[in-house]
């Protein structure tokens, strides 16, 4: 075995060990950040689970030594409550987070914000004020919902 081959093998081994060490450190730091974020949660926080469900934290409880959060998700008449394990909480809206996975988190948060803005714009576009028996009632606007002009 030549001297050049030995040096090359040592360099490759050092690079492999360095890659695993850096990966381990980043993962540990990320897990510590998630643990700190989950311990700071309080009722009323808007959160996102690791599966992408967005909801508001309404209650917490412990069962058999595990911590659970009760989330309220949905809008209008389509509101649901469900419990998730504490480890399922992935992001808290409105709180500064460290940027370990900043690109992924910011892309997810931006998409959620864009979806919320689009939904609000759609609702405001579709809603029109009408007078019905002296009361103002919000009525969704449809394509067939035109002013009634009776021509006799």
Description:
The chain is of the alpha+beta class and 152 residues long. The chain folds into two domains: 3-99, SH3 type barrels; 101-141, no CATH class. Helix content is 41%, strand content 29%. The strands form two sheets. The protein has a five-stranded antiparallel β-sheet, with helices on one face. The model is unreliable at 128-134 (pLDDT under 50).
List keywords for this structure.
29% strand; alpha+beta; two-stranded antiparallel ribbon; SH3 type barrels; 152 residues
Instruction: Kindly state the number of beta strands.
Output: 7
Q: Low-confidence stretches at least 5 residues in length (pLDDT < 50)?
A: 128-134
Silhouette = elongated
Helix content: 40-55%
CATH-defined fold name of the largest domain: SH3 type barrels
The radius of gyration is 26 Å
Overall average residue pLDDT: 75
Q: Please, how many helices?
A: 2
Quickly give the CATH architecture of the largest domain: Roll
Structural class: alpha+beta
**How many domains comprise the coordinates?**
2
**Strand proportion:** 25-35%
| Name of the CATH first level of the largest domain | Mainly Beta
Task: Give me the secondary-structure topology.
Blueprint: H1 3-39, E1 46-49, E2 54-63, E3 66-73, E4 80-85, E5 89-92, H2 102-126, E6 127-132, E7 135-140
In short:
This protein is an alpha+beta fold and 152 residues long. It is 41% helix and 29% strand. The chain contains two helices and seven strands; from the N terminus they run H-E-E-E-E-E-H-E-E.
């Amino acid at each position: 075995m030549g001297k050049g081959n030995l040096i090359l093998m040592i360099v490759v081994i050092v690079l492999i060990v360095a890659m695993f060490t850096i990966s381990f450190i980043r993962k540990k730091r990320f897990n510590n950040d998630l643990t700190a974020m989950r311990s700071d949660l309080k009722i009323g926080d808007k959160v996102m689970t690791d599966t992408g469900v967005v909801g508001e934290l309404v209650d917490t409880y412990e069962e058999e030594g595990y911590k659970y959060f009760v989330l309220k998700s949905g809008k209008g008449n389509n509101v649901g409550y469900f419990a998730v394990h504490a480890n399922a909480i992935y992001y808290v809206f409105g709180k500064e987070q460290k940027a370990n996975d900043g690109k992924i988190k910011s892309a997810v948060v931006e998409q959620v914000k864009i979806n919320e803005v689009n939904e609000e714009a759609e609702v405001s576009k579709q809603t029109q004020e009408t007078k019905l028996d002296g009361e103002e009632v919000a009525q969704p606007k449809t394509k067939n919902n035109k002013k009634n002009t009776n021509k006799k």
